[in-house]
Amino acid sequence: MRIGFFTEVYRPVVNGVVESIDALAEGLRERDHVVYCFTPRMPGADANDASIFEMPSLPLPTRTPYRLTLPLVSRRNVNNVIKRLSLIHAHSMFVTGWMALRYARRYGMPIVYTYHTQLEAYAHYVPFEPNATRFAASQLTRTFGNLVDAVVVPTPAMARHLREIGVETRIEIVPSGIDVERFGAGRRDERVRAKLRVRRDERMVLFVSRLAREKNVDLLLEALADACDPSLRLVIAGDGPARDELEARATELGVRESVVFLGAVARETLPDLYASADAFVFPSTSETQGLVQAEALAAGACIIAADAPQNREVLGDAAQIVAPTREAFARALRAVPAQPDAALTSRAKAAAARFSIDRQTERILDLYGSLLDPEPEGRGRRSA
Q1: Calpha distance 170→112 (Å, rounded)
Q2: Which has fewest Cβ within 10 Å: 134, 208, 372, 384?
Q3: pLDDT tens for each residue of 362-379
Q4: How far is 214 from 284, CA to CA, in rounded Å?
């Protein structure tokens, strides 16, 4: 099978969308399928990867790694690659998504769309009235979702959300995959903790994410201040547009010396980072799944997450779910154990198994197959 991915962002940017795309592409290629990726040209990208087709792009007038895609594909690539695809898989509902839809309809091939992002949660990036922006985002999601042949969502909560806003097309629930074995191989390492200025008598609380308003990071800083516990050290791994504001907020709250802002970290260092933490905290309620939650499970971390339907579905009984308030998180931070709990670690690792790349690939291939070779009339399909 020859599959064309269309995405609005790709390497060298590191975020959940890119990681999800790469994981699925890896799984498909390991099963001898061919995957091409059509993406806007990203500064610093590897120009030697023959599976990536870059389109011209322009910077956006905001602090973001995303680019404005110019929908231009050479005639040669249309004839030699796009026309020969078996199926198109869109990972955006913006410019590249509509390109994907146009090519799929023009050349008579199925199109699948993965719903990676709740656009309504990003209304603050648009300089218009927030309610109007959220309404427009819902309208765009509904319109695009009803034009494709199937929508993939990572959690049942997102399937319910799409139904609520009027998406009527087929919806398949397929969790985004991670390398479970690699994250499960992470080990608690006192050298890692020492480099982060965590003393042996301190408890290390880890947060991994892009630093942006919708991630709710300021809640962690406020909870740390409310906890009033000098033995807590909050390590924030990631970078983003809100970093300066968050550093200033930590200073304002009087906890700057208890917070380590790591900036962007190399992917290969994450397994030991998760395993070396006494707790992993996740205050966001805006995710569709949250890959870092699955990674933390695989590493056997003690997890504290904000109460949201998708977080409960991802974590189950392998984590502590608390209200997304500073008071609730402060109480949870004070109760972080100083030593790993073997039973909790085992439960978390077991819960991570369903996020394997192999399982994701199998489910996606089932979906592709049903679209390329539809079942006889009257036979059922898994859908939400």
Answers
A1: 10
A2: 372
A3: 999 999 999 998 765 533
A4: 7
